[in-house]
Amino acid sequence: MWRRSADRRCQTPILLFIGTGTSSSDVAAVETILGSNKLTYSTANSSQLNAMTEVQLRAYKLLIVPGGNSITIGNNLKPGTTANIRNAVTKDGLHYLGICAADSLALFDL
Q1: CB atoms closer than 10 angstroms to residue 5
Q2: Nearest Cα to 65, choosing from 14, 7, 11?
Q3: How many contiguous H segments (helices) and E segments (strands) does the chain have?
Q4: Is 4 or 24 the better-scoring residue by pLDDT?
Q5: How far apart are CA 81 and CA 83, in angstroms?
Q6: pLDDT tens digits, residue range 10-31?
Q7: Is the dihedral of CA 62, 34, 51, 59 positive or negative?
Q8: What is the C-alpha to C-alpha distance for residues 21 and 57, in angstroms, rounded to an integer?
Q9: Which residues contact 103 (CB under 8 A, 6 or more apart)?
């Protein structure tokens, strides 16, 4: 298995968000694609992502947020978290892949 937990990760280039509000089938589909391509990644739930600083986010090359319920995802992320993501993406070169409901989370405050 390619998944590594964010709280005990070896640095990997991809961070996959698996937090509250994400669709379990979307998460599984992304994990299948990553695994099929032998890409290592770390995962972060809502609490873990909320605890990450902008500097910690910038250590990754790509943040993937699978689809799900955008309201639930947003309600479980702190405003500072979305600001950190937005800053890391727009100012520091973190790549962001938001699927379906997650396509705009990094760019707008929730």
Answers
A1: 12
A2: 14
A3: 5, 5
A4: 24
A5: 5
A6: 478 999 999 999 999 999 999 9
A7: negative
A8: 20
A9: none
Asked if residues 4 and 40 have their Cβ atoms less than 8 Å apart, the reply is: yes
Block residue for tokens 């809502």: 46
Q: What is the pTM of this model?
A: 0.84
Q: What is the DSSP string of 7-18?
A: GGPPP-SEEEE-
Question: 69: number of CA atoms within 13 Å, CB side?
Answer: 6
- Is the separation of the CB atoms in 32 and 68 below 8 Å? no
CA 78 – CA 59 distance, rounded (Å):
20
Tell me the per-residue pLDDT of 58-91, one tens digit each, with 9 for 90 and over: 999 999 999 999 889 989 999 999 999 999 999 8
